[in-house]
Amino acid sequence: MTRYMFSLTVLLAVVWLLFSGMWTYVIILSLGVASVMVTVWLVGRMNLLGRDSEIFHMLPAALRYWPWLIGQIVLANLQVAGRILKGRDSIDPRIARIRIQQRTHVGRAIMANSITLTPGTVTLKVTEEDIEYYALTPDLVEDLEAGEMNRRARQFEEQLS
Q1: Which of the listed residues 53, 71, 92 is the one where a domain comes to its end?
Q2: 92 and 34 inside one domain
Q3: Rounded to two decimals, what is the model's pTM?
Q4: Is the dihedral of CA 129, 52, 111, 150 positive or negative?
Q5: Number of domains observed in the structure of the chain
Q6: Of these four, 4, 7, 22, 39, which has the most CB atoms within 10 Å of its CB?
């Protein structure tokens, strides 16, 4: 438990320092330290600390998954932008459901967030068997049904264990 608290503290402190850029003002720095401490205390109190919450063990798998996901985000951006430029008639929104292969909460969260991060799609509901999502065009539904995102998210999940 202490190891997880330490790694979470280090991660939150680094992120806070990078995003705030306030390294010289004592009052702001002390407020940052206090916010990190309160956050770690709350996470510990809610019993959310454990291997699933430790970021450092996820890093190697994430570094393999994120470049692919960023590529999908760029491709979907271009696809959605093209549809918007073509006009209203080229957009055919729908709600669809995809069966997922992920077995853990973390795996399902990875898949659901990957869908939502991809432009033109938004996750609406996650169950143990499937994900319901909104898609701007039928092409986006076809892309998800092809299964590549599902397969890669499953590989990411397996590498976390």
Answers
A1: 53
A2: no
A3: 0.72
A4: negative
A5: 2
A6: 4
